[in-house]
Design brief:
Distance between the termini: 28 Å
Strand content: 5-15%
Bound molecules: pyridoxal-5'-phosphate
Largest sheet: 10 strands, mixed
Helix content: 40-55%
Number of helices: 29
Radius of gyration: 26 Å
């Protein structure tokens, strides 16, 4: 895309679509020539190309259905619309048979892109993150951080906030999880070819692909830029797999969170320094008003911004430059777990940053001091410390996590003079993109009973008030359909693979599904539920007419042996005769599987050790779909829990116990809750077989939590509390204008 179009809503859309998309209505005289110039088939292919390359399909069910109808096999094989385009685009018959649908979807995309953008006057934000979860065909994410970043981009598109994402293109992504015969996790990697993915090369003003260069010891590393279009929001990705690079450097960004410290440092240099250079290469019109560092991985960005300021004479010294830069930088920290914060050894930093320091005109000691808690010591270079010293506004990702982070990082001010930051550390709670995570049956119900704004302005509580009037029988029916799809998947999977299948027995409306899916890190205590196996077996098998099924999913980091051992323990439990067909592990947790699980589960379990779960978002997705949350009072649940809306673990237990004792006490509390309250209420049915008390809990929980934990609320809060002030504007109170809501 050329310079000025970075924040332009239509920049990612081929102009041919704009002309041709409207052409068939005959409104536009100038389009006639175009129509004559292209055949109907070509015209449909153009529209389909834009539908495939604009990731709005990831949250638009109708476009996904269209892809599936056009090329069922290609779509099912990996949900990659570029493959659908290849398969269907080759057949004039297939295209013309779907003409009306393709046109309708194209026009709907255009209408979406043209919607009123009620934050369009907001500051222009460059959003940096190491991962983005947008679609499973784009191997750019590992877990929660990526999902959050992806949802942030989508919500920015919905509200029209001028925001551009910056990240890395990982050719091998994270990994695909395979469980071997011993129940152990194996990692499988596939190499992705960008030509087969919904992304386009970024073309500069000179008509050539934009390539940036980053100084490395004894050489330069080059990275080519790609653009992914997410509705109205662009995402720029840097790709080191280019022929200009030495073979080893081509693989710098092969694997997300892969390789050793050198790989990690190299990736972060490309992301931070390369990302800043990419924005500069896009021209003055692409200059953002502020930068958002979503986690510390991209904090080298601040060094490069400081260098640019010194080079242009806007700052006389490095420290002055860093202080100036910090005013325009917002930093979000995402975990209180120490292993989640990158620290690079001082000698590694010296070796890698020697050439860059020369460009910067500072000594390596000055640079090292910026990333050190105790400047002058050689305690390593912390990316979080660098991010804190280069940002005047910081936040954690829930209220509790904000407080914990404030304590963790207290005393770290801005620049080397340790100036007090404008916002030392606040809590700004994570959230989810409603339209992405809602299941089809619940969505249909919402469409029937709620204000149309529930989808595109879900943060407005009044859009959800209609839930109070929904007939519990209808809500129950929608829940049965969503649960039924999950159960059917589990059954099919059991038959197809050598995996454990679902035990036969109770029907969909007489099965209670407990879901637990997340990264397998030890603090999340995936095996808490297995603490008393006999008691669990009684819960699962106690009454054949009232089935209880537990579904687990999740990956452990390839080098996290303790996490991998937990995966294996769960897989072994699925093969234990006491649990067979009742306790299941589904391999290769990804966005598609997450959708299936959060949409189908009745209860979402979350058992972290407080306060190690910074926020958690999977529970928000499940709750939106009518699950009841049973969770430790940690992360978002710490602020959201209300006695009549879900259940709380850890409540009422004495604080001063040792960890093992606490685990044991909470394991008992969890089983008590499940046996006495959850199961009793779920199976408490009226004469028509409807669990009225359960349904009323579900309806209230959706109504309360859906607006509160929508990414739109999160984005408005970032805008008001952090973006506007960082851009030097007075904090706005953003009211959603009525006209924006009416046209949704
Ligand atoms: C939502 C989601 C996560 C994050 O869930 P947590 O509750 O934060 O653990 C991780 N992975 C996938 C695929 C998700 O969809």
């Amino acid at each position: 895309m050329l310079d000025g179009s970075v924040y332009d809503a239509h920049a990612g859309t081929d102009h041919a679509l704009k002309r041709n998309g409207a052409a068939h209505t005959g409104r536009n005289g100038s389009s006639k020539g175009v129509l004559h110039a292209v055949s109907l088939e070509e015209h449909l292919r153009l529209i389909l190309t834009e539908l495939a390359y604009n990731l709005r399909w990831t949250w638009d069910a109708s476009t996904r259905q269209l892809f599936s109808a056009l090329a069922p096999e290609a779509w099912a094989a990996g949900r990659n619309p570029v493959k659908v385009l290849r398969a269907a685009g080759a057949s004039a018959a297939v295209l013309t048979a779907h003409e009306a649908w393709i046109r309708a979807a194209g026009n709907d995309l255009l209408a979406y892109l043209a919607r009123p953008a009620w934050l369009q006057e907001g500051p222009r934000v460059a959003y940096f993150c190491a991962e983005y979860a947008l679609a499973d065909c784009l191997p750019l994410y590992a877990g929660g951080l990526g999902v959050l970043a992806g949802d942030h981009l989508k919500a920015a598109s919905d509200v029209g906030l001028p925001l551009a994402g910056v990240g890395l293109l990982y050719r091998e992504g994270y990994f695909r999880q395979v469980i071997d015969a011993h129940g152990a996790q194996r990692e499988r990697y596939e190499w992705a070819d960008p030509a087969e993915l919904p992304m386009r090369p970024v073309i500069g003003a000179d008509g050539r692909t934009v390539v940036v260069t980053i100084p490395f010891p004894g050489r330069a590393v080059h990275a080519r830029a790609w653009r992914v279009q997410v509705g109205r929001t662009p995402l720029y990705l840097l790709d080191t797999d280019v022929t200009e690079n030495e073979p080893n450097d081509r693989a710098i960004a092969a694997r997300l969170y892969g390789g050793d410290a050198v790989t990690r440092l190299s990736q972060e240099m490309v992301l931070g320094i390369g990302g800043a250079r990419l924005l500069a290469a896009l021209g003055p019109d692409a200059a953002p008003d502020l930068y958002h560092l979503n986690e510390g991985h991209s904090a080298f960005l601040a060094l490069e911004l400081a260098r640019q300021r010194m080079r242009s004479g806007r700052a006389a010294s490095f420290d002055e430059a860093v202080t100036q830069v910090a005013r325009r930088v917002v930093f979000t920290t995402h975990t209180p777990v120490p292993a989640g914060h990158d620290v690079f050894a001082s000698d590694l930093m010296e070796w890698y940053f020697e050439p860059y320091c020369r460009e910067l005109g500072v000594s390596i000691q000055q640079l090292l001091a910026l990333g050190s808690r105790e400047p002058g010591s050689r305690d390593g270079f912390s990316m979080t410390v660098l991010a804190l010293r280069s940002s005047a506004r910081r936040n954690g990702v829930s209220q509790l996590h904000g407080r914990v982070s404030r304590e963790m990082w207290t005393g770290i001010g801005v620049g080397m003079r340790n100036a007090p930051p404008a916002v030392e550390m606040e809590g700004l709670t994570n959230a989810i993109h409603t339209a992405t995570w809602v299941g089809p049956e619940l969505a249909r119900l919402f469409d029937q009973h709620l204000e149309p704004g529930w989808r595109l302005a879900p943060h407005c509580a009044e859009h959800w008030s209609g839930l109070a009037e929904v007939d519990p029988a209808q809500l129950w029916e929608a829940r049965n359909a969503q649960r039924g799809r999950l159960l059917e998947y589990l059954e099919r999977r059991g038959r197809a693979a050598h995996a454990e299948g679902l035990a036969p027995g109770a029907g969909a409306d007489n099965t209670l599904v407990l879901g637990f899916a997340r990264r397998f890190a030890t603090y999340k205590r995936a095996t808490l539920l297995l603490s008393d196996p006999d008691r669990l077996a009684r819960l699962l098998n106690g009454d054949p007419r009232r089935g209880v099924v537990v579904v687990f999913a999740g990956k452990a980091h390839p080098r996290d042996e303790a996490g991998k051992a937990l995966v294996q323990r769960i897989v072994h439990a699925t093969r234990d005769p006491r649990f067979q067909g009742r306790l299941l592990f589904v391999e290769d947790y990804d966005v598609e599987l997450a959708r299936l699980l959060v949409q189908g589960s009745d209860v979402w379990l979350n058992t972290p050790r407080r306060p190690e779960e910074a926020s958690g978002t999977s529970g928000m997705k499940a709750v939106l779909n009518g699950a009841v949350h049973v969770s430790e009072l940690d992360g978002w649940w710490h602020e959201a829990y209300q006695p009549d809306l879900g259940w709380a673990l850890g409540l009422g237990l004495p604080d001063a116990q040792g960890q093992d004792e606490r685990d044991a006490a909470e394991a008992v509390q969890l089983m008590d809750l499940l046996e006495r309250e959850v199961r009793a209420q779920f199976f408490g049915r009226d004469v028509n077989g409807i669990p009225r008390a359960w349904m009323s809990r579900v309806a209230r929980s959706i109504r309360t939590f859906a607006p509160m934990f929508s990414a739109h609320r999160m984005l408005c809060e970032y805008s008001e509390r952090l973006y506007e002030p960082a851009a030097g504007k007075p904090a706005l109170q953003i009211a959603t204008p009525q006209h924006a809501l009416n046209t949704m």
